[in-house]
Amino acid sequence: MEDSIRKEGGFEYVEQGDGPTLILLHGLFGALSNFEDVLNHFSKRFKVIIPLMPIYTLPVINTNVKNLMKFVSEFIEFKGFNQVHLLGNSLGGHVALVYTAKHPEKVKTLTLTGSSGLYENAMGGSFPKRGNKEFIRSKVEVTFYDPKHATEELVDECFSIVNDKGKVVRVLSLAKSAIRHNVSKDLPHMDVPVCLIWGKNDTITPPEVAEEFHELLPQSDLFWIDECGHAAMMEQPEQFNTILSDWFDKNLD
User: How far apart are CA 253 and CA 248, in angstroms?
Assistant: First the structure.
């Protein structure tokens, strides 16, 4: 997927397919590859776009949820999209929520999976220790129900991040910003169709978070995936894609 990254207007992104625009937003430790199965499945009916979020390139003082939302807003304006479908995982879901609150006229539908914005237990309750790869492996495994999904590639990527001082400072800044930027008061006013797809075994944004989102969002549907953690689109891609496809069938004109 890295080979197909487009670079224009100061943005880096992957784009595939044709049709209505579906934008996928990755999380704090996420990457474009997290959405590979979603991209391949939905690019048959949507123009699917995955922007590379500037998590590690914003000035530290500006590394927060609000400025990630601003980045998404500027990207959508740059591409000239009138309305989009947004899908966000973890921090990406949080950013999608803040964007929807500010630009409701731009959002056709919203899909959240393991989204922050209400509560999250980041990295299993403690920040990874620098230099201790096995500790980091254990924290990456917390993301999934089945630890086999914590591949060596994912562990190496996380290990690299937490051993880069500049990246660590930004990760901590974003984590603190996500806690401060609670969206509960905005949710009842988000009158757009929302699909909530949640792993029953998510320990980072546990099931009660999904239930609170469902209660507060006026047009939400909640779907559970068993034997699944925080990244449903990675751990159970077939179920995830089927649920979302069926939901789109019922909610798109």
Answer: 9
Length of the chain: 253
118 closest CA partner among 203, 200, 191, 206: 206
Q: Which domain holds residue 132?
A: 2-251
Give residue for tokens 């990246």: 167
Residue 145, domain CATH: 3.40.50.1820
**Residue 112's closest CA among 195, 47, 192, 35?**
195
Q: Are 195 and 242 in contact (CB under 8 A)?
A: no
Let me know the angle formed at the C-alpha of 237 by 148 and 247, rounded to the nearest 5 degrees: 150
Number of structural domains found in the chain: 1
Average pLDDT, the chain: 90
Which residue is associated with the tokens 């984590």? 175
- Residue 114 CA to residue 210 CA, distance in Å, equals 8
pTM here is: 0.92
* β partners of residue 85: 22, 109
